[in-house]
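Design review, sub-item: ligand-bound model
Attendees: FS, YL, KQ
YL presented the inputs for the NAP complex:
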Amino acid sequence: MPSATSLVARSYPDKIIGVENTLPWHLGTDLKHFKSRTQGHAVIMGRKTFESIGRPLPNRRNIILSRHLIEDTENVKWAPNPETALLIADQYSIINLKKEFFVIGGEEIYNIFHKYINIVFLTDVFSGPINGDAKFEREFDGREWWFRFEKEFPKSESDDYAFRISCIVRRKPFHRFASKNEFSADDRAVWDAWARYEAMMDRSNPETVLEPSQLDLLSEL
Ligand SMILES: NC(=O)c1ccc[n+]([C@@H]2O[C@H](COP(=O)([O-])OP(=O)(O)OC[C@H]3O[C@@H](n4cnc5c(N)ncnc54)[C@H](OP(=O)(O)O)[C@@H]3O)[C@@H](O)[C@H]2O)c1
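KQ shared the predicted structure:
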């Protein structure tokens, strides 16, 4: 199955990610990175984050976790539980030949999916102490994770604070598997795309989940 990647921006040193359901900063360059990395992919988010964004993210399959019904549209799919969110993300990724999908917050949703995440793009925002009600407190132990690369950005007209984006990779990727029959028998589009997807994944090993073009994204900012 496709691999899960998360993107999160938190304050340094307090690890705050949100206040009263908004982001505590405007970081235009970080948003540009978020957009270019997630374009064309499935993104999983919590209902509160969906409301804080205020609209579906364009050119992405928006999968919204909520215990209460959310009307589906072409780009928005309701997931009443984490298993359904994964199923929708997997099906979309297979049909569109994407090796990864993204978990984009907030606090509750990062915690639910953490065990599946193989790559984290962590933005440390050098804001100093700030107040907030949503946090991302996870530490990345060097025995389990490695810092593959990082890049620092200065405060600028489009960025309220200086920040650093780190790419953190799980040393032993978490692989999820499903058989074609149990997974897609009643979905013709997934069934049809399966062989092409399988061939693509066969050629890849965990190291190539991050393709060179993806690594280049940071240098383009
Ligand atoms: N800095 C960043 O990178 C970043 C990224 C994203 C978000 N944020 C911030 O994070 C904050 C929001 O985080 P949050 O933790 O409060 O909310 P959240 O994770 O966005 O959403 C929580 C909601 O998800 C649904 N949910 C949770 N577990 C579920 C389950 N097992 N099954 C079905 N639905 C489930 C529930 O929706 P219902 O109540 O509808 O049932 C719950 O209220 C905001 O301030 C936002 O701006 C920051």
